[in-house]
Amino acid sequence: MHFNSFKILAVLALYGAAAYPTAPSAPYGRHYFYVGGKYIQVASGNTTSQYRVGQIYVEKLTPSIVTKQHPIIFIAGSAQTGTNFLHTPDGREGWAHYFLSQGYVVYLSDQPERGRSPWLPGHGEMVAIATTAIENFFTATQDFNLWPQASLHTQWPGSGRVGDPVFDAFYATQVQLQNDNLIAEATNAAAYTALVDYLNQPVYLLTHSQAGPFGWRVGDARPNLVKKIVALEPGGPPFEGVFPFFGPHPYGITDLAVEYDPPAGPNGSYLSTIVRPAPPGTKLTDCILQADPPKQLVNLAKVSVLVVTSESSYHAPYDYCTVDYLKQAGVATDFFDLPIIGIRGNGHMMFMEKNNLEIAERILAWMEE
Ligand SMILES: *[C@@H]1O[C@H](CO)[C@@H](O)[C@H](O)[C@H]1NC(C)=O
Ligand SMILES: *[C@@H]1O[C@H](CO)[C@@H](O)[C@H](O)[C@H]1NC(C)=O
Question: Where along the sequence do coiled-coil regions lie (predicted)?
Fold first, then answer.
């Protein structure tokens, strides 16, 4: 009895504290390193100085007993860092802990020019995400109803609005991001390819949102080292740009070149497309797919892909187009449309929502198939 009431008091103290997050600690090894990037010369007046750009901060978490053959590399989306997966903004276990507890080595990272990965002033432009965008698109979509599924959001811990302590803890983690998509895609693909080369063993990539296209390009560049890609609501849909700063994707799923057979041509100009209307009576969008015969993503076709999409996200109307595009281009792609597999009420930040570990369990089962 004493022990129980002590535990309850401890929990109250934890949740009463102003500073989130305070996740449970687990025994694991933690090391960091930087990888990728290159030296560049910058002229100013009559002097030239040397700097390094494009390297990424990587954190290696090793469970006390490694039981799984392939490590998992996590790449977070726009304005996010590796903290996304460490624990949740209300202090629960994140996906990193979960996969560690299952015997996986986990690599968390910050994209180039993001968080602990340096940005060289003058290399593109840095922008920030305002609270309204986070509320509208991530945490409180049910209050704004900007797309047909938005009202189905129930899994964010707390109100998802400014002033709620969980929102405030989450918003405080939002950092700057590169405003130039082409710079972002080029630097990310190069840095994560360098990471895969450095590890030099088959890996799983887990990408979120903006990082989706970066994962496709790393898989395209290293199809023999990237064994599986789990893409949580990857940037899309094919060829189109949506929220909030993403332009068209001339290579279908990416802005920069990926290998097609026959070739996609300069800036994807040989890809010919059709519009496939949305199934009638659904809340889905039309899809832009390739016209027949579709060119094949010959490198990415060597990688197994899982796309995961939540019930209420702004991706819910169109992620099925990305899945169909990949399949049409020869990539073996599974799709966890979460409500279809019985997981309801999630939004774009599913890995930190109330049922985050339930989703992780399903992904784990897919990884181990
Ligand atoms: C470099 O430029 C500065 C001013 O811009 C000048 O004072 C200096 O003499 C120059 N040095 C050389 C080596 O030309
Ligand atoms: C590449 O194609 C996209 C549209 O598909 C276009 O917006 C962009 O300007 C093109 N870039 C170049 C360098 O031609």
Answer: none
